[in-house]
Amino acid sequence: MAMKYSVSRIGVFDQCRLKYKYQYLERLTPEMETTIEAFMGSRVHEALKALYDGVKNRRVESKDRLLSLYDELWEKNFSAAVKIVKKGIAAEDYRIKGRACLSDYYDAYAPFDAAKVVSTEETVNFSLRDGAEEYQFMGVLDRLDWNDREGMFEIHDYKTSGSLMTQDQADADIQLAVYQIAIAARWPEARTNAKLVWHYLLFNKEIASRRTVEALDALERDIIAKIRDMESCSAFVPNRSALCEWCGYQSICPEWKHIRAVEALEPNAYMNDPGVALVAKYAELESRKKEHQSEIAALEAEQAGVKEAVLAFAEREKTNVIDGPGFRLLVSVREEMEAPYKSEDEARWKGLRDLLIAEGRFNEVSTVNNRMLSSRMRSWPKALWERMTPFLVRRRTCDVTLKKKS
Ligand code: SF4
Could you give the CA distance from residue 374 to residue 296 in angstroms, rounded to a whole number? Predict the structure, then answer.
C-alpha cells in the first residue's frame, strides 16, 4: 500500500527523526495514550463538531447544552492514562479552560449563520503529483464552510494551544494551505477563492490568511521535496528538545531511557543501578579534582614566595646555583631589551611599528612583539637597532629551576 503523508507526519519528521521512525515507520505504540492538552483539545473539537452538525441541520443548540455535552465527553473519556506534563496544573484546570474556550466561542459566533457548513471533521484524501510520481496525502479538516455572501470557501481550524500564532506565522503555515489544495481538487474555484481561518479558542481570537495560486504551487513543490527528503532519510537521530516531554517514546529513546528506567526506583535500588553508580563515581572524581585544584593553587602561591626568597638569596650571595638535599636550584636572571606590549605602552609600541614600516622591516616580523625580537632583530644593522632602542623596554626575567642531583 502506498505511504500516506500528512502535515502532522511532516511536523514529526521536522521535530525529531527518531520519533518519526518510531511513530510512522515502525508504528510503535506510544507508552502514554494522550497528554492532557491533547485530551482537552479533542473534547473541545468533539463538542464543536456536534454544535456545527446541528447548525448544518438548522438546529442551534443552547450554550448550556454545548457545555453539558463537553462535560459528558470529558467524563466519559477521561482516565488515569491521560498524562499531565506541566507541574502544578490539575486535570480539572484543563477541563475548566476547555469550557471557557467553548463559552467564549459560542458568545462570539452565535447564531452561527455567517456561512453555510459544508462538513465537520472531514478526512480528505488527495494526491500531489510531480511528473510520473504521485504522493498520497491525507488530512482532517475541522470545518469547511461555504460563505455564500462573500462567495468563497472557508477552511476553519480550532486551536486550544496556549500560544497565539502571529500573522506572519499564519501566512507561512502549511496545514490549512494543504487543505486548500485538497479542497481545490473537488472545487477548482477554491484554488483562488478560499480563506484559511484559525480559531485560537483560549484567546477568543480569529486569525485569517489567504493564499495566491503561485503560493499554492510553490507549497506543492516544497511538500514534494520534503516527502523525497523523508523517503531518502536513513539517519534517524534523536533531537532532544522541550517537546520531548510530550513524546510517548521516552522509554526506548536513547536520550531518555535511563532517566525513565530509574526514576521510579526505591532509593536503595536506585543507588545500586550500574549506570547511577558510574555517574556517582564520575561526579565524585570531578569534585575531588576541583578540591585538588584549589590545593594546587595554594601550593603555587606558597612556592612563588619561596622563589622570591631564592632570588634574593642568589642576588645577595652572588650565586646562580644553590645546593640542597637531593636537589639544586638553578637561578637565571636575564635583562633584555624587548618590544613593549601594546597594552603596556601604546605610544612606544606604535612608534616601533611605524619605524619598522618606514625601514621596510615590518613585513619580516608582521607584528611588533618579542618573538620578532628574538628571531629577527639581532641580525639587523646596528644603526637600525640604535634607532629602535627608544621604543624598547628593558625587561628582567628571573627563572628558578629545580634540578635533581646526579
Ligand atoms: S523523547 Fe525526544 S529525542 Fe526521543 S524520540 Fe521523543 S522527541 Fe525524539
Answer: 33
In a domain, 216, yes or no: no
Task: Determine, yes or no, domain membership for 177.
Answer: no
Residue 401 to residue 281: CA distance in whole angstroms: 37
Q: Reduced to 3 states, what is the DSSP secondary structure of residue 80?
A: coil
In a domain, 48, yes or no: yes
Out of 249, 252, 257, 259, mutate this one to test ligand 1's pocket (max ligand atoms within 8 Å of CB): namely: 249
Last residue within a domain, chosen from 80, 112, 144: 112
Ligand 1 environment, Cβ below 6 A: 16, 18-19, 238-240, 243-244, 247, 249-250, 253, 255-256
Using the mean position of ligand 1's atoms as its centre, give its distance from the Cα of residue 251 in Å. Answer: 10
CA-nearest residue for atom 2, ligand 1, is 244
Query: What is the whole-number distance in angstroms between the Cα of residue 21 and the centre of ligand 1?
Result: 10
Distance of CA 100 to the CA centre of its chain: 32
Ligand 1 atom closest to residue 19's alpha carbon, by position in its atom list: 5
DSSP 292-323: HHHHHHHHHHHHHHHHHHHHHHHHHHT-SEEE
Whether this prediction's pTM lies above 0.85 is answered by: no
Range of the domain at 87: 32-112
Give, for all 406 residues of the chain, the pLDDT tens digit.
568 899 999 999 999 999 999 999 999 988 877 889 999 999 999 999 999 999 999 999 999 999 999 999 999 999 888 888 888 889 999 999 999 999 999 999 999 999 999 999 999 988 888 888 888 899 999 999 999 999 999 999 999 998 999 999 999 999 999 999 999 999 999 999 999 999 999 999 999 999 999 999 999 999 999 999 999 998 899 999 999 988 989 999 999 999 999 998 999 999 999 989 999 898 898 888 888 888 888 899 999 999 999 888 988 988 888 888 889 888 888 877 788 888 888 898 889 888 888 888 877 776 555 666 666 666 777 788 888 888 888 888 888 889 887 7
- Omega of the bond leading into 254 within 30 degrees of 0 (cis): no
- How many domains, the chain? 2
In a domain, 22, yes or no: no
Residue at which a domain ends, from 112, 135, 150:
112
Pull the grid cell for residue 385. 637597532
How many residues appear in the chain? 406
If you compute the radius of gyration of the chain from its CA atoms, what whole number of angstroms results? 38
